[in-house]
Please model this.
Amino acid sequence: MHVHLPKPTHGWREFFGEVGIIVLGVLIALGAEQVVEAYHWRHQVHQFREALDEELAYDLSAYDFRMRQERCVDRRIAQLDAWLADAATDPALPLSAASAAPVRISQYRSVWDLQTGDLANHIPLRDRLSYAQLYDELRLFEQLQVQEGQAWTELTSLQGQRGFDRAELLHVRHLLKLAQSSAHSIAGNHDYVTGLAARLHIPVRRETFGLTIAPCDVKKVRPVRS
Model:
């Protein structure tokens, strides 16, 4: 049995030419779709990074605001350390210099937390990792501030009291060490945080947040013992 293949009306050359035009049209359409999709993702990523940078700039300003209080915090800690040494031999000495705890500015992570996987995956890997590290460090900063605030809140509640027994003095020392270690960790991480911000070209703005940092009124203190 012989199978007879249909022949194009105007010949095979014209037939393949028409098929080629169709294929070329499909390829052009697919290429145009990819161009539109690429533009869409570039636009979405640009907007997303603008929102991230604005959120981080605010959080970094909160970190800077806390760092501007560091000198006063160190001096209050030193005065409390000196008070502990004196109170061990003079129970009548009232606890002082525990007031005016560091002012804490709340941070934001809503833009980062609400991201979608597809959107984040279109950010270059190096930048994506830098964003993640920066948010991790700022989350640690927030945790340290909470820890620090709890210590200072309890120390402030003891302001003016006297006649501490040995156990109470040990508790005050524990609170003092907690405040001191929190402050040292906050200050120690600051350069690393600003370095990550610089890698992402995010400026650290100096904001006041409508607040005034209390002046240091501690004139003479003893050095903190190691």
